[in-house]
Amino acid sequence: MVSYIQQNTWGWMIAAYLFLGGLGGAVGAIGIGVDLFVQHRRRLGIFAALSGFGFLAVGTVLLLADLLQPLKAVFFFMNPRSWIFWGIMVISGFMVTSIIYVMPYIKDWPLVNRVAPYLSFLDRWQRWAGTIGVLTGFGVTAYTGFLISAVPAIAFWHTAGLPVLFTFSAFSTGSAYLMFALWTLRRSQEPLIEALERVDAALIVGEIIVLVAFFNAASCCPAGASHSLQYLLGNIGFLVGFVFLGLLVPLAGELYSIAIGDHLKGHGISVYLLPVLSLLVLIGGYLLRQYVLMAGMYSYPW
């Protein structure tokens, strides 16, 4: 008789690493991409690049802390066939190029202006670095899903649908984070906030479609995947915390905001709707990764 064991090796630190990795890559890709290819938004580009760098730095610290022996991280560089190796490459690529991209913008800042004369050569490379930053930022969001899907012992994870789901979720949380930040300057940033709101609503719709397809595939896959699916569908925290509060409520709220228009200029509760929805999307993004890890089941005996 086959029994299924819930994995307990990857806990909240790895969930936070996956969340911050996807969020950081998406924020950087969106902000830098808007500045370079849509409409010149210097402040947005700076904020997004530095935020993305910070999120990835914190996520990396959590990953190393979870290893218990961080010095052994050097072995990550010795296996180019592993997803962790390529994850380190794209994360490092984003962090380096985001700094090269942002340096010409902040050369007048205190402390930075002291070394700015020695870094003036970076000006000519800013657009190239920003373009690579957008690509590597997208790569980081996808990598977080590929890392988990590369575990063949857990059928629920070992599917091509998981990287797609995590990518949609990452860009949704990235849009929500930027909306929340821009909300503090809502009078001057309203057109950009409204554009991000429409993008986020579309991303949530896409995330719901991918989630349904992912669950449908799990129900038809080996028993281990269907067992994980049953665990999630019977978990109140997942259904209420992620599906309802992290997906459906933000989608309904954003569609309402888009429909009424000019909600940022309103009074009372309507003006605070967007930051609340943004926070729910961010919380939902973390909960998705936490519950996907918790649903990891492997069979015993193998």
Describe the protein's architecture and organization:
It contains 10 helices and 2 strands; from the N terminus they run βααααααααααβ. The chain is an all-alpha fold and about 300 residues long. The chain has one domain: Formate dehydrogenase/DMSO reductase domain (Formate dehydrogenase/DMSO reductase fold, Up-down Bundle). The protein has a two-stranded antiparallel ribbon. Helix 6 runs antiparallel to helix 10 and helix 7 crosses helix 9. The radius of gyration is 20 Å and the shape is globular. The relative contact order is 0.14.
Write the layout of secondary structure elements.
Blueprint: E1 3-6, H1 12-38, H2 42-67, H3 83-102, H4 112-115, H5 126-149, H6 161-183, H7 186-220, H8 223-233, H9 236-260, H10 273-294, E2 297-300
Antiparallel strand pairs: 1-2
